[in-house]
Design goal:
The structure is a single chain. The protein is an alpha/beta fold. Helices cover 41% and strands 22% of the residues. It contains ten helices and eleven strands. The strands form two sheets. Strands 1, 2, 3, 4, 6, 7, 8, 9 and 11 form a nine-stranded mixed beta sheet that branches. A two-stranded parallel sheet has the order 5-10. Strand 1, helix 2 and strand 2 form a beta-alpha-beta unit. Helix 9 crosses helix 10. The longest helix has 29 residues. 39% of the residues are buried. About 9% of the residues have low confidence.
Length: 276
């Protein structure tokens, strides 16, 4: 009899611990907002996440894996918010519908995609046609552009990148980048690669430009916040966040509301982007 009682108590205790553990895990999950996607939108999100937590909000986990990967994660239930440097594609929206995901879009800032070169490169400006020719392989030497007699090393983003897709549409006019281009997975990787190679050219979001590289004007249009916001700069774009309205947590909504507020938009400007 005593043995049965002991077994009963052990079983009851195990069940109690299981329930407590499950509740703890559920609470832990609800205490974090997960954001995945565009590396372009990453700096804005990181700054906003730090400020949000200091204001009494919960932790925001931020991962830069590319716009396409972020949108896929949202559709598959792997994140609360998907960052994207391009609009969702029709096939992505259809995929979301098939999985019962009700997508809502937020524009969080404006951006420019700026061609960059090594600081020692004498070339200061390129036309849209010249950029296309560099990236499709029609122009292969800097001397054809007023630079040194050196082969051009072309650096591009990989195809999961929203930045790549905007470049592919606006600069390349949907023609493929030359096959020997060196593909990088993030804006930061392109900055590092171009900064270390005097022959290289790459392209990054405006917010990533620093003094280790030099941004080029396009069609003699200056790189400025005003020209980016008005769309005068030839490769300008909007930056997005996407959510699933069916499963949006209160904290995720608060985070987006904060980013869209005056304080959040000040952080977007501080990160080097163009506020709404």
């Amino acid at each position: 009899m005593q043995s049965k009682f002991i077994k009963f108590m052990v079983l009851a205790l195990s069940l109690a611990l299981l329930v407590i553990g499950t509740q703890a895990c559920s609470k832990k999950k609800s205490d974090r907002v997960t954001v995945k996607g565009s590396t372009t939108v990453l700096p804005i999100t990181q700054k906003a996440a730090e400020a949000f937590k200091k204001m009494g909000g919960i932790s925001v986990s931020v991962e830069g894996s590319g716009s396409g990967n972020g949108i896929k994660a949202l559709i598959d239930g792997g994140c609360d918010i998907a960052n994207s440097s391009r609009e969702m594609k029709a096939e992505e929206i259809e995929s979301a519908k098939l999985k019962g995901v009700m997508v809502k879009e937020f524009i969080v800032a404006y951006d420019m995609i700026v061609p960059i070169v090594h600081v020692t490169n004498p070339v200061k400006n390129l036309s849209m046609d010249q950029l296309k020719a560099i990236y499709d392989g029609s122009i292969t030497n800097w001397k054809e552009l007023g630079g040194k007699d050196e082969n051009i090393v072309v650096i591009s983003r990989d195809t999961s990148s929203g930045t790549y897709e905007i470049w592919h549409e606006k600069v390349m006019r949907k023609k493929d980048v030359r096959p020997d281009a060196l593909l990088q997975a993030s804006n930061g990787a392109i900055i590092t690669t171009v900064a270390g190679n005097p022959k290289a050219i790459g392209y990054v979001g405006y917010g990533y430009i620093n003094n280790s590289v030099r941004g080029l004007t396009i069609n003699n249009i200056q790189i400025s916040i005003e020209n980016g916001k008005t769309g005068k700069f030839p490769v300008s774009r909007k930056l997005y966040m996407y959510i699933n309205e069916m499963k949006l947590s209160a904290q995720a909504k608060k985070f987006i509301d904060f980013l869209l507020s005056d304080d959040g938009q000040a952080l977007a400007r501080e990160a080097g982007y163009i506020p709404l």
